[in-house]
Known about the structure:
The chain has helices at residues 2-26, 28-43, 86-89, 119-132, 147-158, 178-189, 203-213, 221-231, 235-245, 248-251, 253-257, 279-287, 303-306, 308-332; strands spanning 46-52, 55-62, 72-75, 98-101, 140-145, 163-169, 265-270, 292-296. It is globular. The chain has a single domain (30-37, 46-332), classed as Rossmann fold (3-Layer(aba) Sandwich).
Amino acid sequence: GDTDVSMLAGGVLVLPVLAFITSFVFWPGALLKAYNWYWRRRLGLVVRYSHSGSYRFCYSSRGTPGGATPSMLLLHGFSATKDMWLPVVKHIPRNQHVVCVDMPGHEGTSRTCAEDYSIQGQVGRIHQFVQSIGLDKRPFHLVGTSMGGNVAGVYAACYPAHLSSVSLLCPAGKFNSEFIIRLREMEKSQEEEEAIPLIPTTPQELENMLRLCCHTSLNLPRQVQGLLDNRIPNNDFYREVFMEIVGEKSRHSLQENLPLITAPLQVIWGKEDQVLDVSGAAVLQAALPGCQVELLDNCGHSVALERPRKVANLIMDFLSAQEVTGEDAKKHS
């Protein structure tokens, strides 16, 4: 009879829902991914792919180029993904064209070999990405944090014609901090197996990493296991990238390229940064006296996570200021 059919239909429906719920209990990593998916949808970001030959880039974007302000490309840090920028994008006006890309080998972007992971290698790949989506048709604003900040700075030196302006958030480079000094010592002892603080393998190590990166403690007991589950399969890749970016060639790349940066530059740094010391901001300012430096109180290395609204506002204000300066220059010429 009809009841059997509806019972059966009900049962069939209950099973996937049940499977869906239990999967979250056992796989918190999946929950984290679902949360990001939901957040992207709410913010109107669409995930897309572009190609350069057989190389694939994964990115999320919102809005269209050619608005009142230049397009904005955001480069995330070591072992993060494009979703790192979600808290910042939340505070960026809807009409601003925003593009967040997965850096080489990270998340949805092709994982190839070490030469793509050096800073110069990443700059080359990001250049291909920019061409693949036609972002080079008009000058755009480039934002990068940590490793992504190093890449953004070198990109600005290599492709000045592409950029309207640049924001570097605590960019990696040859700026000393206790953390970097400790890495030096690890490198000297050449103990590959020694735990790298940014590549955790246990919940405790992950909590230590979060403590190292964030000045204000994030209360994430539940998410820790999920974050760890999503990271562990990538740890060998992270080690490979890490060895490249702390290597001799990459380590000096930003400092060597600073004199070549001509685009208006904004530097944002947390005063309590334990990974890359805030003194790096003074190094940048000494090399590029015209740059605008913003130091954030009670903020650590994960600026975008700790101060998303502040970061979004600083970047948007900087963009508006560039537009005004540009208009004035046009009037006077």
